[in-house]
Each structure stands twice: as C-alpha cells, then as structure tokens.
Amino acid sequence: MATSDPSSKSRWTFLTNHARVLLELARDPDARLRDVAAAAHITERATQSIVADLEASGYLTRTRVGRRNRYTIEPSGKFRHPAEAGHAIGGLLSVFTRRETEDEPSGLPGQDTHRPAQRDGQGHRPGPR
C-alpha cells in the first residue's frame, strides 16, 4: 500500500530537483531563485547550481531585466534519459503548469469528469460560445 507519510524511511520522489526547479520557473519566469528554492524544498545554492545546469544544457535561458532575471524555458528540449529521449519536456511542463478550466476536465483515469450542465436563471442552457 502506498503511503504519503513524509517521515517514512523511503523518501524518493517521482520528480528530480531539476524537474522541480524547471517547473517552478515555467510557472513564474520572473521568480527569484530564493523563492524557487523554497517552493522546491531545496537550498538556494542547489537551485543556483540546477539553473546553471539547465542553462548550460539549453533547457532555459536567463535574461537580465533591470536588477532581476527572467527565465525562458525551451519546451522542445528533449528528456536526457534514453528511455524518454524522444519526448520533449513541454509535455511534462504542460501537465504540471496547466490550469484546468470549467470546460476542460482533467480526463485522468478514475476521476469523475461529469459536470452538471450550467443553466441560466430561467433553467435554460446557455447558447454556443
């Protein structure tokens, strides 16, 4: 049985710290590395090292805007592991950064995606958009 107890002896996760940093920068390209580190639950120094890795490998670019940095992700970059090498990282980014809307159910197995039809104050469904 799977457990989500953070105090369990096995502390592995599905996403690496590199993936977490990349996702945080995809969510907020103007984020300070201090904030990215806090969100990823790693040190600021580790975050700086990861950003340098990602930049050197072409997954992101850093642009100076005043006193801050802006990070641009290259979604066509490919995964590094041979098992996933044919896939672009953009797919991963879209899964974790997409905001679901009322008209866009998640479509994940086991989730109820049925929503009752919206009706106006007189009980009628709204027309096409």
From TrEMBL:
This is MarR family transcriptional regulator. SUPFAM superfamilies: Winged helix' DNA-binding domain. Residues 17-66 form the HTH marR-type domain. InterPro entries: HTH_MarR-typ (IPR000835), WH-like_DNA-bd_sf (IPR036388), WH_DNA-bd_sf (IPR036390). Residues 90-129 are annotated as: Disordered. GO terms for molecular function: DNA-binding transcription factor activity. Residues 112-123 have a biased composition (Basic and acidic residues). It comes from Actinacidiphila oryziradicis.
